[in-house]
Design a protein that fits this description.
By secondary structure, this protein is of the alpha/beta class. 32% of the residues lie in helices and 23% in strands. The strands form 4 sheets. The chain has a 5-stranded parallel sheet with strand order 5-4-6-7-8, sandwiched between helices. Strand 14 and strand 15 form a beta hairpin.
């Protein structure tokens, strides 16, 4: 029956993830049947995010039915998502002519919580910003001013899950970035806190080094984003590129001001595209090489990987399975359990850049030692844990990072020697970062 379905509604919970029959049905819909799946979160707890079910929808938008106060909004959101999936299915059944178009004029990177249009469509429960800071509205007005098409997720992906049934959401976004000339990043505190927006921004700006127009949106007095990783990267690109100076829309309050800002953005895009075209004409035509992130582990790399119970240990990459997005590792201590690890629970054992870590960044940090089961009785290794950076201080010319565990509540951390809820005054050289889905897929 599943193979005849146009849409698969998955009511996900910890119980769902632990049920063998539910897992089999879910995996068939996602991998074999290639049926659009709409994830709907019910029940209590989020242990399912660390299961096969969580892995298969990593990065996708799911609908939360956990608060009774927004039940009606969520029903409407679910209805809209089902309808979009059905429309996409009907369109995919119709015969199409394949054609390859020109590069897109620009790529819109934004957070739905900053889009009034998203709120009016019942896609989000609240919005931070005004009608003059709505990325979707701005996108339409820039297209009119430029006469060029811009890439927008709701138009290109078709659904909040899989618009193209032959590609994952991340692969479609990566392809959209590969075919764009300029990225319009609508930066806000909400954007900086979004894992997906962070991945998109870093892949575009740091890995692909695409020309970027930073546009500040959200609430007028919110500056939290500036202390986070996105804000740190923005400071770097502004310093080296005259075209990347931020355009702040937060205090725009009239149609006249808004139209002036739209024209400014459109002119910035036109100037960037002109410079890029001139540079391409001066360069010899060479075969394109894939953009590879330095954070993506490869076979043979020494890494820090999750073993069990939130503990991370040293190991070496043996293989990678693209379908499941999992690495297989060999542990340094010779343990043969827990060798298959999700992509975002593995970090190369290399130092990270200063611009990679800001307030709110999730990192792996060493805390507490353990005795390795080796012939060398004097040898011991570090346990690593996942934490969130909450403050960064300059002391004696060095940046020191402090924060807390993210997998345990205060008072519930494992009772190992040297392990405590907070970590303080760590140097950057001691921290490690897991790759994003973009890093892994494009490596």
């Amino acid at each position: 029956m599943i193979q005849k379905a146009k849409v698969f509604l998955a009511f996900i919970s910890n119980e769902f993830a632990n049920d063998e029959k539910c897992q089999q049905q879910f995996q068939f819909a996602k991998k074999s049947g290639r049926i659009p799946v709409i994830p709907i979160v019910v029940g209590q707890g989020f242990d399912w995010t660390r299961s096969v079910v969580g892995l298969l929808i990593a990065g996708e938008l799911y609908i939360h039915f956990k608060e009774e106060s927004v039940y009606d909004q969520k029903v409407q959101e679910l209805t809209n998502s089902i309808q979009r999936s059905l429309n996409a299915s009907q369109n995919s059944d119709a015969p199409k002519k394949k054609k390859k178009g020109p590069k897109c004029g620009g790529f819109i990177s934004y957070c739905w919580l900053n889009s009034l249009s998203s709120k009016l469509a019942n896609e989000v429960g609240f919005v931070k910003g005004s009608e003059f800071t709505d990325p979707r509205k701005i996108k339409k007005d820039i297209e009119t001013a430029l006469g060029a098409k811009l890439w927008l997720d709701i138009e290109q992906l078709g659904t909040s899950n899989q618009g193209d049934l032959n590609s994952s959401m991340f692969e479609q976004i990566a392809q959209g970035l590969a075919n764009t000339k300029v990225v319009l990043s609508f930066i806000s505190s909400e954007y900086s806190k979004s894992e997906n927006c962070n991945m998109e921004f870093n892949h575009a700006v740091k890995t692909m080094k695409l020309p970027t127009v930073p546009i500040i949106v959200g609430e007028p007095d919110s500056e939290e984003w500036a202390r986070m990783q996105v804000g740190m990267v923005l400071g770097q690109i502004e310093a080296r590129d005259e075209f990347s100076e931020r355009i702040d829309l937060r205090k725009v309050s009239s149609v006249e001001e808004y139209e002036a800002k739209v024209n400014e953005i459109a002119q910035r895009i036109a100037d960037m595209v002109k410079v890029e075209n001139e540079e391409l004409e001066e360069q010899e035509v060479e075969q394109e090489t894939p953009v590879i992130s330095s954070r993506a582990p490869k076979i043979g790399d020494h890494v820090i990987a999750h073993w069990n119970g939130g503990q991370f240990f040293f190991s070496t990459i043996v293989s990678f399975d693209k379908d499941s997005m999992c690495f297989t590792v060999d542990w340094d201590d010779g343990d043969t359990t827990g060798r298959v690890v999700k992509y975002n629970e593995v970090a190369k054992d290399v130092e990270v850049e200063e611009s990679d870590v800001g307030e709110g960044t999730k990192v792996l940090f060493p805390q507490g030692q353990y005795k390795l089961d080796t012939n060398d009785e004097s040898y011991s290794g570090f346990r690593y844990f996942e934490g969130e950076v909450t403050s960064i201080e300059e002391v004696g010319g060095k940046r020191l990072y402090s924060g807390h565990h993210v997998r345990y509540e205060e008072g519930e951390v494992p009772r190992f020697r040297g392990v405590q809820y907070h970590f303080s005054d760590y140097e950057l050289s001691t921290l490690r970062l897991a790759p994003s889905a973009f890093d892994v897929l494009c490596s």
